[in-house]
Amino acid sequence: MTGGVGSADASGDRSVAAGGTIGSVNTGDFVTQVERATLLPPEALTVSPAGLVHLPERTQLFVGRAHELALLDKGVGTRAIQVICGLGGIGKSTLAARWAADRVADHAVVWWITAETPAELDAGLADLARAMQPGVVGVLPEDALRERALQWLSTHDGWLLVLDNVSAPADLRPLLARVGGGRIVVTSRRATGWQDIARTVVLDVLGPEEAAQLFTGVCAGIEGDGLDELCAELGYLPLALKQAAAYCAEAGITPRTYLGLLAEYPGEMFAATTEGGEAARTLARVWQVTLDRLADTPLSVVVLRTIAWWAPEGISRRLLESLGTPLEVTEAVRRLAAHSMITLRDGELTVHRLVQAVVRAEAGEVTEEARERAAELLFVHASHPDVGVERQMAVHAEALAGHMDPADDTELTATLFQLAGVTLGMGTAVGRALPLCERALRSLRRLHGPDHPETLHAMQSLALTLDMGGDELAAAELLTAALAGWLRGDEPDESSMLLTRAHLARVLRKSEPGRADELFRENADECHRILGPRHPQTIFARYELLDPMSGGEVDMAALEVLVADAERASPEDPLLRDTIRQSLLLELSGRDETERALALAAECVEESRGRYGDEDSRTLLSRLFEVNVLQQGGQEERARALRTVLLNDCVRAIGEESELTRMVREMQL
Q1: Which Pfam families does the annotation name (predicted)?
Q2: Which of 76, 149, 410, 427 could form a cystine bridge with 128, CB 3.0-4.6 A?
Q3: Residue 102 contacts residue 110 (beta carbons within 8 Å)
């Protein structure tokens, strides 16, 4: 090349002449043109990953989790991928960080990436490339950096990636399609969808001792004074424990004081942070992210807001059936479970009590609507013939009462609490039943006055519960007042008046037998006059006159007539018929008429199974009578075998607390 500036001469094959500035020059027989090429400095080609570690600051507040740490150690295979999943705030990231920190020596590279979105995952990979090759910083664009990290991961092993807070399994598929022999630990609130790509480690809450240890690790010097109660109230959830402990330490208050503040100001306490604390990591915020993700399935949020008012466990899907079509309800439940907001076990839902508390603490009409919906759903199932649903209804109604101010009670909720109290009182839970019945009576008196039919029914329910608890005097006083209330009415409810008189007579049977007999005779005459001879209430009044449960001599001929009359009762009353036939069974067994008693017992069991199902309380009771007849008839071995099966069915169907379960358990065989 010759000549001055701006001019040039060239000679020879494939020679180039240039004058001034040129953009690009191609020569040769085969030419590849590259535009926008980046010239890398020599040091950019050096990769130095050995000992590269990027993890969150190691926390000293780590308790328990030995089992989960061991599960993470069991990751095997050329590419081991494990997912730590669970409810937000349960300690997934803390567990992953502790495990990774303890395994640094086992890996050439240990790298933590916040990967809530695909963009965050890509950014974390780009950061890894920068750390491995500092020479590329400021030279390569983000996508090229991400690609260099993927290339290195795909051609090396002995590395560990921790991907924190991944939203969905699909977000990882591009990465997993490229990487080679390393370890990946994922944390996610997503509980499902991992089966094809990873093994899951499901994280649960801490145990009571571990929870107390975590609390005192944050708030030192706390011993007793409500610590165990607060840990239980917080459901042993690590995030809640840390939040409460930090607040107690900074405010200089005890756990018991914090409990009081939490009860009085739940919304404010769930959102409270200490000075410099991270607002996004409070209970009020940590689950909002998940709720936002569920916005495209509105019924999921409706379900969660509804079950927030019930007991946290034993929530039957049947209680939710009316909220939508079967598919809509199933999909709502599925999505809540997929995002760890609930767990599913044996067809029932379980929700953490703090999730419930945070949802209830939200202000606004939507919360009040959810409370009303929760009450209405329980009320619909309150008289369901399935004893399992009935028992669940009572437990959930008890929880609802605990979450409501009595001043907000309506006629529906007061009646619901009354029904729940009676149901609980039928078992051994009289101590739980009495507050519900007392509250129902106070609320109905406030709403309707002292002589309103609903108030008088509530007086009867409370009286029966008091009687079951052994307070016969208080029960008799209430029933006497209720009977006077029925008589004072402008249009007396004669049927209710008859029932109240009968209840009063039963309560007085032990303390004032003479007055009780007089009331029974009066009631039988009044039933015959008002209701007619074939009415179930009339037949039952005649049955009570026989006093078959007193242990005295019973007129067998009269009892046989009552059995026949109960079969022809109008309207039909299977419970009346079963009750009188069971009395006949006992009399036959006591008179050594075993063969007839056994035939009648078997007939009662089969009829109950056909009418109510095998695990209904009425069927279980008929089976108990059959065991008794077998025992009294000398068939001890068969009686023991049937009793064992019956006890298992009682525990499963009606629970350990049921009076019937207790009776079966205490049988001497």
Answers
A1: TPR_12
A2: 149
A3: no
